[in-house]
Amino acid sequence: MRLFLLSALVVTLSAQTPQPPRPNISLSTYSLDEVVAVIDGRPFTAGQLDALTNSFQGLRQNMQSNPEGFLQQYGFLIALTKMAEKSGLENKTPTRERLEYSRVQILGNAQIDQQFMDIPLGEPELRAYYEKHKDNYSFVNIKAIYVPFSAAPPPRMDPKAKKILSEAEALAKAVAVAKEARAAGADFVKLVQAYSDDPVSKTKDGDFGTFRRSDKSIPPDIGKVLFSMKTGDVSDPVKQPNGYYVFKAVEAANQTYEQALPTMATDARGAMLQEWVEKTMKGVKVDIKNPGYFGKKDGAAAGAPPAK
Q: Against a cut of 0.85, is the pTM above it?
C-alpha cells in the first residue's frame, strides 16, 4: 500500500530551502467549527483539517482527490503513533534523535517564515530598494535573425535545396547581416524575412520577446549581450550550439518604480530575508575539538572498524 501521506510528510520535513508561507485556504464552504469527519471516534472539524492540509504541500490535493483514503491513512498513522508512544519509542535511539532533528527543522523553518512576514516594508523601504537595485528591473525588447549551421554539412544533392551552412559560412553570413542591419535606414524586419531561419520568430517579424535582467533562465552569454544594448543597437553575431543570432534592441529601458512594484515587494523581502539568514548564520559559533572525528580514510569515517 502506498502511504502517500507519510511520503508527503517525509518529503516536506526533509526540504532544506525555506519557502514563503502558503496562504490558508479553506477546503469547503462549511463552518470551521463543524465536525466533518470522525476517525476512530475522534471528531475532526473543518478548521482542524484545513490547518493540517494547509501546513504541508500536497496534502490538500491528496485529501480532495481521495478523502476516505486520506483520512484512513491519517488515522493509521495516528494509531501507529499511539503504539509507539505506548512502547516509549520517542525516548529511544534513533527515534529520539530523529524527532529532535525534525523539531529543529520545523521550528527553524517556522522562524524563517515568520521573519519573512515581519520584515517592515513600506514605501520608503521599497523606494530605497528600487534605487539600489534599479538595474534588476531593466528590460530589453528584442528582434532576432537566426543563421543556423551544421558541424558537418551533408553534400548538397539537390541544387534547388537550401544549402546547409558550415559554422564558418554561418558566421560570415551573420557578420554581413549585422553590418547590413546597422546601415542607415536599414529595415530589420525585411532582413528577418530575407535571412532568418527561425520559423517561430520569423512569422512574428523577428519578435524574440522581452527580457528582464532578473530573469535567471537567460543563458549568461546571451544576457551579457542583451543587457549591454541600448535602444536601436544591433549586436555582433552571438554563437549558440547550432547557429548564430543577430539581435536588435527595439527598446531597452528600466521599469519605473510603479511598473516594478508588483514583483518588487517579494524581491525586497527575499533579499532582506537572505541578509538576515546570512547574518544569523554567521553568528553561530562552531568549535571543533577533535578534527579526527570528522575525518575520512579510504572512504570510511575515521575510527570505523576496517572492512572485512
A: no
- Note whether 211 and 218 are within 8 A (CB): yes
Can you give the residue range of the structural domain that contains 236? 135-257
Whole-angstrom distance, CA of residue 232 vs CA of residue 249: 5
**Residues contacting residue 109 through CB under 8 Å, at least 6 positions apart:** 15, 18
Q: How does pLDDT run across 198-228, given as a tens digit for each residue?
A: 999 999 999 999 999 888 889 999 999 999 9
Number of domains forming the structure of the chain = 2
d(CA 151, CA 293): 53
Contact between 143 and 129 (Cβ < 8 Å): no
Residues 184 and 82 in one domain: no
Has residue 300 been placed in a domain? no
As given in the structure block, the three cell numbers for residue 304 are 570505523
List the one residue out of 124, 135, 143 whose CA is nearest residue 255.
135
pLDDT band at 13 (very low <50, low <70, confident <90, very high): very low
How far is the C-alpha of 52 from the C-alpha of 59, rounded, in Å? 8
pLDDT one-digit tens code per residue, 247-267:
999 999 999 999 999 889 989
227 HSE (CA, 13 A, CB side): 18
Residue 184 lies in a domain: yes
**Residue 206 resides in a domain:** yes
- How high is the mean pLDDT of the chain? 87
Give every CB contact of residue 281 below 8 A, 6+ residues apart in sequence.
Answer: none
